[in-house]
TrEMBL record:
One Pfam family of this chain: GFO_IDH_MocA
Keyword terms of this UniProt record: NAD, Oxidoreductase
Domain named GFO/IDH/MocA-like oxidoreductase: residues: 130-265
Enzyme class: oxidoreductase
Name under which the protein is recorded: 1,5-anhydro-D-fructose reductase
GO MF, any single term: nucleotide binding
Domain Gfo/Idh/MocA-like oxidoreductase N-terminal: 5-118
The keyword NAD appears for this protein: yes
Gene expressing this chain: afr_5
Keyword Oxidoreductase: yes
Length: 374
């Protein structure tokens, strides 16, 4: 075998990161990029040394492309991914897998029938920091996991984004924009979710654009801009999560897992690197004793990787006949969780999550993205 041919559909801002990273992985080669705007596709092809550009159909028709990376807007993720499956290509899609359960389920059925793979972002689960944290928990450094806490809170992307309206529209908000990172991490660590309850609020019905050519104009807020979620997992653990675009206090990437024998804090699930450390219980507390706890750092590789790692893992997993980490089934379960939280916030009722997922695999030991293995 040789490098696997990749085609990219959608060359917006995030495509730069994918193209930069994929060009560093010897096992894959980007052969063509496609977009609705051909001049934009041409510019990205020339910028990153991709030999061809064109429309989405050109990418799907390219005979050398075995894997399509879908970087389109969430509203058309399912449509584009299904076309790729129909064209006989494996698919890696940006998050979320889709915006409705029925379409996402049909995509997975079609891929399975065709003997093709679907992968779904986020692939931060494959980063060296998360992999090290997962192995530490599996090795029992905190005993049996009991509950988790996660936090993402910010003043909102309208402060810096020149066109932020889509981030407050149906299919987005902090739940569907940032939720995939946190709940993919939780499911990988604690297993599938059984049921969920949520409360959502809006700070205001309209937001103002603060930067760019449209600064000073307003747009409607269609979804909760703050949502608080309580999650019950199938294995009996639980979690509480805050996702907010309304907070004056900026706090990102908080993931704490509390167990019978300690607590571990792990890296921001929106990043591939970061700190991992844990504390052990204080034991017996007597008058005058210090409550200060010693943090035990977990050292891990500091490999500079980024988005595109999940597509590489898919390519190698296909060749090796093993499951890939960020699978379409995991993406579907996370989508089901997020939509269930959205429904709970709208109705005030606890929602049972109907889907499930097998234990999320770890990367093979010694996985080196910069090695040629095919």
């Amino acid at each position: 075998m040789s490098a696997v041919g990749i085609g990219i559909i959608g060359v917006g801002v995030i495509s730069d990161t994918y193209l930069e990273n994929l060009s560093a992985f010897p096992d894959v080669e980007v052969l063509i990029v496609g977009d609705l705007l051909l001049d934009r596709a041409q510019a990205q092809a020339e910028k990153h040394g991709v030999p061809a550009f064109g429309s989405a159909d050109d990418v799907l028709a390219h005979p050398g492309v075995d894997l399509v990376i879908n970087l389109t807007i969430p509203a058309v993720h399912i449509e584009v991914s299904r076309k790729a499956i129909a064209a006989g290509k494996h698919v890696w899609t940006e998050k979320p897998l889709g915006l409705d359960r029925e379409g996402a389920a049909e995509l997975l059925r079609e891929a399975d029938a065709a003997g093709l793979r679907v992968g779904s972002a986020p692939d931060t689960l494959l980063g060296p920091a998360f992999q090290a944290a997962r192995r530490a928990i599996d090795d029992g450094v905190i005993g049996r996991p009991l509950f988790a806490q996660t936090t993402f809170q910010t003043q909102g992307p309208d402060l810096w984004h020149p066109s932020p309206a889509f981030l407050f529209a149906q299919g987005a908000g902090p739940l569907l924009d940032m939720g995939p990172y946190y709940f993919s991490a939780l499911v990988s660590l604690l297993g599938p979710v059984d049921r969920i309850a949520a409360v959502g609020t809006k700070a205001r019905e309209e937001r103002e654009i603060h930067t760019g050519p449209n600064a000073g104009t307003t747009f409607p807020v269609e979804v909760p801009s703050t949502i608080q979620i309580v999650t019950a997992f199938e294995q009996g653990t639980s979690a509480q999560s805050l996702l907010s675009f309304d907070s004056a206090l900026e706090r990102h990437g908080v993931v704490e897992i509390h167990g019978t024998e300690g607590t571990i804090v792990i890296a921001d699930p929106n990043q591939f690197a970061g700190r991992i450390a844990y504390v052990k219980p204080l034991g017996v507390i007597r008058d005058g004793m210090s409550f200060e706890q010693e943090w035990i750092e977990i050292e891990h590789e500091d490999v500079k990787v980024g988005r595109g790692l999940g597509a590489l893992d898919m390519v190698r997993a296909i060749a090796e006949g093993r499951p890939h980490v960020a699978s379409g089934v995991l993406g579907f379960h996370v989508l089901d969780i997020l939509l269930s939280a959205q429904e709970s916030a709208a109705t005030g009722q606890t929602v049972v999550v109907e889907s499930t997922v097998a234990p999320v695999p770890l990367l093979p030991e010694g996985f080196d993205p910069f090695a040629a293995t095919l």
